[in-house]
Design brief:
mainly alpha; rod-shaped
Length: 62
């Protein structure tokens, strides 16, 4: 009967190890993606500001 508890303990330890093995790289990818989105958002704001500075009426007359 003790072998059931040993087997269950090993299975639980394996499951925890697998969860950590999958979760750590996934978390790093999520953090990297979030950082890229923040950079992209800043670039879009910069582009909007530059486009807002354009004097489109003067350009259309030429």
């Amino acid at each position: 009967m003790i072998w059931v508890f040993i087997f269950a303990g090993l299975a639980l330890a394996g499951f925890i190890a697998l969860a950590v093995y999958v979760a750590v790289p996934l978390r790093q990818k999520i953090d990297g993606t979030r950082a890229e989105v923040l950079v992209l958002t800043e670039r879009v704001e910069q582009i909007r500001e530059l486009v807002g500075r354009l004097e489109l009426d003067r350009l259309r007359r030429h």
